[in-house]
Predict the structure of DUF362 domain-containing protein.
Amino acid sequence: MASKVYFMNDRANSLQESTPFKAVKLLRDAGLKTLFKEGDTVGIKIHMGEYGNSLNLRPQWVGAIVEEVKRLGGNPVIVDCNTITFGDFTSRAIKSDHLRAIARHGFTEEALGCPIWICDGDYGFDDVQVEIPRGVYMKHSFMGKKLLELDACIVVTHFKGHPMGVYGGALKNVGIGMGSKRGKISTHFMNHPVYGIQAMEANQAAAQQLAQAPHPNMVDRAIEGCPFDAFEWKDGVFHFHSEKCGKCAGCFSAALFAGLLTLKPEITATWAPTIADAASGYIHAIGKEKFLFVNYAMDISPWCDCVNFHDRPLVPNIGIFASKDPVAVDLACIEASEAKAALPESKADEFGFGDPGTERFTNVSSIAKISQWAQCNAGEYNGIGSTEYILVESEPGEETDFWFPPYTPDNIFGKVNKEALRSGNYEPGEYFYDLPRLSFAELHIKPKGKVDEISILDEE
Ligand code: SF4
């Protein structure tokens, strides 16, 4: 059966058409009022962005949803889990770093107006095993234990590309984002006995080349960074003692991106479906009927907010989508992105996938080089959603619903602040010239502007 996906585009001319309040209205349309009852603990699952990335969700988008949950009598709480170790300078792999990193992005309890729970504890080990009733690849995974305290969950997602999942949407926000450290490692198959890190071999050619760089180079850092001392440099040769490997995925970046270990090519086909598999386990564990999903199809960068940079978006901003169905809401975002021409000089344009309908997530975003449809198809097989949807064009809410508190139509700014406003000094004195000192023509002439272009290297 086709699921309903509610949508508004990114154009705006009024308060109620602003991005935060469109999302609130879309959640109302999708059934927020009946998602929970008064006094319930309502998780708002967000991804707050790796240090260095700045296209993550905005705190004010999330804050508006927090306020709406409170207005309806719920107790909102921001939820996320720690990450796997992406590299030597990873920012969200343990709770203390995670909280510092997200504070830099403006995500604090004070700014959001509710508690922030890192649901798998200080080091990502506070987890619970959950079954995956109908997985494509996975039978079970591991989620942050504290997530099971939620009565309901609103999954708030920045839709974009993803190097392993091909795209990152609601399924990935749950399937990866709600996983504990062990859950994330499993979902990426990094601890798989055949395809995982333990089964990989040292890539001697890559190691020899990387070892030429000044110390501490990537090889030094891999050796230092392995908590189980599984790497060694001896007699000019790089060694991987796989029997020592503790499967922590701490060398994720050194192994995958720098190529210190030889990746098994078969692993890439698993990444997108396993995201949906894990998502289905976590959704079933909390309760399928307790979820709502809202996706912001804005700033659609080629890679995820879990990398510490972002590239120019692939396509123009599209708008916001909301649904009870994580598969349908993601699919609606992919199809809407596909319908757009790529932004000029974006990665999609550069790679020759600028025209609409060119599967640019498949061809541009992913290091997996598998289909952008795989996550959604797996999600439907998992039983958590439908690949058929009805797009419902929503309308903005009432402007008065979204006035800055405490102002209401009966309690407007001028009335509340009357005494203070009367007490101010409004006399400006003679601050102006009788005639402008540049002529109209002088003000409106186009300036000379750029007179040359050089590299900073030419400055020396
Ligand atoms: S960092 Fe060490 S223990 Fe962890 S996965 Fe890599 S080799 Fe194994």
Summary: DSSP finds 17 helices and 14 strands in the chain.
